[in-house]
Automatic annotation (TrEMBL):
Lineage: Eukaryota, Fungi, Dikarya, Basidiomycota, Agaricomycotina
UniProt protein name: aminodeoxychorismate synthase
Catalytic activity: chorismate + L-glutamine = 4-amino-4-deoxychorismate + L-glutamate
Domain Glutamine amidotransferase: residue ranges: 9-201
Pathway field: Cofactor biosynthesis; tetrahydrofolate biosynthesis; 4-aminobenzoate from chorismate: step 1/2
PROSITE patterns reported for this sequence: GATASE_TYPE_1
């Protein structure tokens, strides 16, 4: 054994891999963990390299151990020649593979166990020596029947009673150095049987190696070139490109006793539909800051479609197509922002300037699994749609102040002009923008009705039934099945009369009807996005702190008479289904964060019921702090890497994420586009904040000429050209083995209705 043990970790495309890698590093002091996929190398290429490692860990993964594409090279590890024999520890699929390759049969559980905690019984020997009580998380729908495997010795069990009987939870090979557990020792809710079991494995491994004279060969650069560096590491594409530059942030602060963001936006020209406009709106608690981008005709616009070899950058009438070259879009965005850094802004203000816009669901899913051929891009939203904001107004709603900012040189005149205009808003607003919209019942029948096309009920329920079959087969623990609703809506009457923006009128109604902490109005032609999202996806602080935080929501109860906090806690935190869904996503997010920042990832809050303006929600909080060595290699520009590793949002896909994305692509039959992507900003100081695009709607402006052929784009967005707009709303729900298909349909419709209510007032507003 070496002073720094080298562990080869074989990953079967799971979404808990880096959690287990982190557990290994804590349990095995000074260990170096190298992670490869189960299909990266052939058996003939990999097996000779085992002599350079001290042990192998075979992680969990989707599918079945008797399906070659699911298990890859893992099956060969159990049959190596004696001179290549090496201690191995398997988890979940790893246990099943070990057992099956030695004669066991794989069976389906009668009742699957996904994200549920069970007592594990053991005999205090081998892996479980001095472990004591074990309460462990199980994620599996398959189990092993050892009746035909005389070489396999069971070590631990879980008693499922009438559901599944006694299920094997730990085992070993009777003569070879192979051990495994079925449960997930790395889960945040596993207590006992985690780090202590890994320590026992390492003790058993070192004893076996010593007794059998196994000597680990010295590390070889050729081996590293084959298996890659140890974790954590930075992708070569993500190394800093471009020459770093930094400019000062100029700031003026104005007291605004009653900040009214809609009036300020109208002062800045939001009602002119021919222009781009971006605003991120903390329209409800616990939001604090709202951000308005003060764009100019030459503000840089960035658009990109998955699969394109170039990124389109527009400055006014000047459009360039910049080749990605050896970079991917994430590394390109990192390089773009590296040359546009700023300093000396107010430290408590989260946004000094930077990129604002959205990233599509497909942008994230492409990283996991290549997209199939796509249709005509003229009728598709860009997958990256961002604008660089050099001038901004940030409203601090807690302090009742506005911060006017610019990173342009010699921009004092503009700053002073905006300050003077804002000072006219120092008293409460009395104009029409402050008037709450009428209730639908008061306006019913007074204007043209919206034409609403909901998803087909039978088809949606069939998809849920099909999704559950994928869960029973072991391919996923949870699948978020979604569907689009189409709305052909009349333009707002007042907007038509004045020739102004109907989408802005609709946003104000949505904001009043469904206020949310991550609301926003993004008009970046050809796309207009109206967000009323309740959910932050990820935020990351400016260096040197660099803390990343994710706040997944799984479980919502709408406020109503009799729904007190105690009742909401019983319905949410007291529900096995809701907690299991939340736990799966927490473990998945830990994995995503670990993959970038390294070991320092912690769950700060687990399944706490939080109160919002209209709902109670079950919220967890996960934080990660980048490893110092990772920051040095990436020059602290890790924000885009965190997004790349975390998208699409796990609770909008399921786990394991890659297989779930592929299944959902098949089930849903169409791209999601903007829905279940993210909207937010990347700050010139190095921070960022992005929300999940849910409870939102978006529309696409048809190009009139040359919009996607290198010419300056022109779009049919003038209010006089058409009396209707076509909007898309996405909604869905997490499907687990406990889901009732009809109830899931009803929950999806309830989510759609939270946005549809805004369209009821549109024709007469």
């Amino acid at each position: 054994m070496t002073s720094k043990p080298r562990i080869l970790f074989i990953d079967s495309y799971d979404s808990f891999t880096y959690n287990l890698a982190s557990l290994c590093k804590r349990a095995i002091p000074n260990s170096l963990v190298h992670i490869i996929k189960n299909d990266t190398l052939s058996a003939s290429s990999l097996l000779p390299l085992l002599k350079h490692f001290d042990a192998v860990v075979i992680g969990p993964g989707p599918g079945s151990p008797d399906i070659p594409d699911d298990i890859g090279v893992v099956k060969d590890i159990w049959h190596v020649a004696d001179d290549l024999l090496i201690p191995v520890f398997g988890v979940c699929l790893g246990l099943q593979s070990l057992a099956v390759e030695h004669g066991a049969k794989i069976r389906r559980l009668n009742v699957v166990k996904h994200g549920q905690v069970y007592r594990i019984d053991h005999q205090d020997t081998d892996l479980f020596q001095d472990v004591g009580s074990v309460q462990a998380v199980r994620y599996h729908s398959l189990h092993v029947d050892l009746s035909g495997a005389p070489e396999i010795v069971p070590l631990a069990w879980s008693d499922d009673g009438e559901e599944n009987g006694q299920v094997v939870m730990g085992l070993k090979h009777h003569s070879k150095p192979f051990w495994a557990v079925q449960y997930h020792p790395e889960s945040v809710c596993t207590h006992g049987g985690g780090q202590d079991v890994l320590r026992n494995f390492w003790r058993l491994a070192t004893e076996w190696s010593s007794e059998h004279g196994r000597i680990t060969l010295p590390w070889d650069p050729v081996v590293q070139a084959t298996v890659g560096p140890d974790w954590p590491s930075v992708r070569p594409e993500a190394y800093a490109h471009g020459v770093a530059s930094s400019v000062p942030v100029m700031t003026r602060t104005v007291q605004l006793p009653s900040p009214n963001i809609t009036r300020i936006c109208e002062m800045l020209g939001v009602e002119d539909d021919s222009t781009d406009f971006v605003m991120l709106d903390s329209a409800a608690a616990p939001g604090r800051f709202s951000i308005i981008g003060c764009l100019t005709s030459t503000s840089p616009r960035i658009t990109y479609a998955v699969g394109d070899p170039t990124v389109r950058v527009r400055h006014g009438t000047d459009i360039t197509s910049e080749p990605l070259g050896a970079l991917d879009i994430w590394a390109w965005l990192t390089a773009f922002m590296r040359t546009r850094k700023a300093h000396s802004g107010l430290p408590d203000i989260p946004f000094w300037g930077g990129l604002v816009g959205y990233l599509s669901y497909e942008l994230g899913s492409q990283t996991l699994s290549p997209l199939p051929p796509r249709r005509d891009p003229q009728h598709r939203h860009p997958d990256v749609n961002l604008v660089f904001v050099a001038r901004s107004i940030v409203l601090d709603l807690h302090a009742s102040v506005a911060h006017v900012q610019s990173i342009l040189p010699d921009d004092d005149e503009w700053l002073e002009e905006i300050v003077r205009k804002l000072q006219t808003f120092s008293s409460p607003a009395t104009d029409r923008s402050a008037r709450p919209p009428s209730k639908p019942s008061e306006t019913k029948g007074t204007g043209p009705a919206s034409a609403i096309t909901l998803p087909d009920r039978t088809s949606y329920i069939d998809k849920i039934v099909a999704a559950k079959e994928w869960l029973y087969s072991g391919d996923s623990y949870e699948l978020c099945v979604t569907a689009p609703t189409r709305v052909v809506a009349p333009k707002a009457a007042t907007a038509v009369a004045r020739g102004t923006s109907s989408s802005w009128e609709l946003y104000k109604i949505l904001r009043s009807r469904n206020p949310a902490p991550h609301s926003g109005y993004i008009r970046l032609h050809p796309t207009t996005l109206l967000s009323s999202s309740p959910e932050r996806f990820v935020s990351y602080a400016r260096p040197p702190d660099g803390v990343c935080q994710l706040r997944p929501i799984k479980g919502t109860v709408r406020k109503a008479p009799g729904i007190t906090r105690a009742v909401a806690e019983e319905m949410l935190a007291g529900s096995t289904k809701e907690v299991a869904e939340n736990l799966m996503i927490v473990d998945l997010i830990r994995h995503d964060l670990h993959s970038v920042v390294g070991e320092d990832v912690h769950v700060k809050q687990f399944c706490k019921v939080e109160e919002y303006e209209t709902v109670w929600q079950l919220v967890s909080v996960i934080e990660g702090r980048p490893d110092k060595s990772v920051c040095e290699k990436a020059h602290a520009d890790l924000g885009w890497e965190v997004l790349r590793a975390s998208l699409p949002p796990g609770h909008m896909t399921g786990a394991p994420k890659k297989r779930s994305v592929e299944i959902l692509r098949q089930l849903e039959g169409a791209e999601r586009g903007i829905y279940s992507g993210v909207v937010g900003y990347a700050d010139v100081g190095g921070g960022g904040d992005w929300a999940v695009i849910i409870r939102s709607c978006f529309k696409h402006d048809e190009p009139t000429d040359g919009a996607f052929n290198g010419a300056v784009p022109h779009f049919k967005h003038n209010a006089t050209q058409s009396l209707t707009d076509e909007w898309t709303l996405g909604a869905g729900g997490a499907i687990t083995a406990l889901s009732d298909p009809v109830a899931e349909w009803e929950e999806m419709i309830t989510k759609v209705e939270s946005v549809l209510r805004a369209f009821g007032d549109l024709g007469s507003s």
